[in-house]
TrEMBL record:
This is Chondroitin polymerase. Pfam families: Glycos_transf_2. PANTHER family: GLYCOSYLTRANSFERASE, GLYCOSYLTRANSFERASE 2-LIKE DOMAIN-CONTAINING PROTEIN. It comes from the Bacteria. Residues 11-151 form the Glycosyltransferase 2-like domain. CDD domains: Glyco_tranf_GTA_type (cd00761). The lineage of its organism: Bacteria, Pseudomonadati, Pseudomonadota, Gammaproteobacteria, Enterobacterales.
Length: 329
C-alpha cells in the first residue's frame, strides 16, 4: 500500500551539538524515510567541531531542510528553538547521533490513518554501542510490550507505567504540534529534560497509540550527556522532574495515577541518591533544602523506599541533619 505524506505534515526537529562524526548518518536516516517528512528543522546548538558547517554543506541546499544556528543553550532549549520553526501538524524530536528505522514515519502515518484524532504515537526502540570495546556491557532496550490504542494520555501513562514501559525519552514519540502552544509546554534548561517534559505532555494529550515495533536505534557512545560523569547538574535535573511529577500527582483524583506518579518520584529519588553517593558530590545548601522538601512531601513514598532500600532513606536523613545548622534557624 502506497502511503503519502499529503494527509498530515510531520516536522522533524534535530538538535545538533558537536556530533560531526555521526550527524550525516542520523540526518540521512530521516531523509531516507519511506514516508518523507514535511520538513526537517536542524538546530545547530553552537557546535564547535564543525558540525554546523558540515550541515550547511550537506543539506543547506535542500528545500525540505531548515538549518538554524544558535549559541549553545543545551538540548532542551535547542528543541524549543526548533519547535518555534515547526509548521507541521505533528512533531518528532530526533537526536543527532542516532538512527531512525526507515519505516518510523510510515508506521506513524498508518496509525494516524486509523485514527485521525491521534495526539501521540509511541513505539519501541533498541540500542547499539558506538565502539565494540563496550560489547560486554548490557545494552538498554526500550520495548512497549503491546500494540494498543488509548482514549487519552493519562490512560496510556497508567498502562505503560504498569508494564514498566513508559519511557520519558522524547525520541520515542511523535506528537501533535499544537499540544505545545495550547498548554504552554516547553523543555526546561536542565539535564534530563525529558524526565520533566514527557509526563506533562502525556497528561495534556488526547488519544495515544502504542506500537511494539522497533522504529529507533539509539547509539550508546562515550562522552554523550547520558554516559558522562554525573554531577550537581544531574541532581538539579531530577529535582525538577520530581517537582513536575508532584504537580501532576496533586492535580489527579485517580488513586491509580497517583500511584504511578509516586513510583516515578521514587525512581528519581533513588537516582539522585546514587548520583550523590557514587559521584561523591557535595551539594549546595540550596539543593539540600530542596531535597529535604522532597522528603517531607513524599513521606509515604520514602517509608516504602526505606523498606526496599534503607541506604537511600538514610542518605535523605543525613541531608536533613546537615540542615540543622544555624544558617537555617
Amino acid at each position: 500500500m502506497m502511503i503519502s505524506n499529503d494527509s498530515v505534515k510531520i516536522s522533524v526537529v534535530i538538535p545538533v551539538y558537536n556530533v560531526k562524526k555521526y550527524v550525516k548518518q542520523a540526518v540521512d536516516s530521516i531523509l531516507a524515510q519511506s514516508v518523507a517528512p514535511y520538513e526537517v528543522i536542524i538546530v545547530d546548538d553552537g557546535s564547535t567541531d564543525g558540525s554546523g558547517d558540515l550541515l550547511e554543506e550537506l543539506y543547506g541546499h535542500l528545500e525540505v531542510v531548515k538549518i538554524v544556528h544558535t549559541t549553545n543553550h543545551g538540548l532542551g532549549e535547542a528543541r524549543n528553538e526548533g519547535s518555534r520553526h515547526v509548521t507541521g501538524e505533528f512533531t518528532y524530536y530526533f537526536d543527532s547521533d542516532d538512527i531512525a528505522v526507515p519505516t518510523l514515519l510510515e508506521e506513524f502515518m498508518l496509525a494516524y490513518q486509523r485514527n485521525s484524532d491521534l495526539d501521540i504515537f509511541c513505539f519501541s526502540a533498541d540500542s547499539f554501542f558506538d565502539t565494540p570495546n563496550n560489547s560486554n556491557q548490557p545494552l538498554p532496550f526500550y520495548t512497549r510490550k503491546m500494540d494498543k490504542d488509548f482514549p487519552d494520555g493519562v490512560a496510556a501513562f497508567n498502562t505503560l507505567s504498569a508494564y514498566g514501559t513508559f519511557y520519558p525519552n522524547a525520541w520515542m514519540y511523535v506528537f501533535r504540534s499544537n499540544l505545545l502552544s495550547k498548554h504552554d509546554l516547553r523543555f526546561k534548561p536542565i539535564i534530563h529534560e525529558d524526565e520533566e517534559f514527557t509526563p506533562r505532555l502525556f497528561f495534556k494529550a488526547g488519544k495515544v497509540t502504542a506500537s511494539n515495533k522497533i522504529l529507533f536505534k539509539r547509539r550508546v557512545r562515550a562522552g554523550s550527556i547520558m554516559q558522562s560523569n554525573r554531577n550537581e547538574k544531574n541532581v538539579i535535573g531530577y529535582i525538577e522532574s520530581i517537582n513536575a511529577l508532584e504537580l501532576l500527582r496533586s492535580a489527579s483524583e485517580s488513586k491509580k495515577t497517583k500511584k504511578h506518579l509516586s513510583d516515578r518520584i521514587y525512581t528519581n529519588i533513588i537516582t539522585i541518591s546514587n548520583i550523590i553517593e557514587c559521584g561523591h558530590i557535595s551539594l549546595t545548601d540550596d539543593l539540600n533544602v530542596k531535597l529535604v522538601g522532597i522528603k517531607e512531601r513524599n513521606k509515604s513514598v520514602l517509608i516504602y523506599l526505606a523498606k526496599l532500600n534503607p541506604r537511600v532513606y538514610r542518605l535523605f536523613y543525613l541531608i536533613k541533619r546537615r540542615l540543622t545548622r544555624p544558617i537555617y534557624a
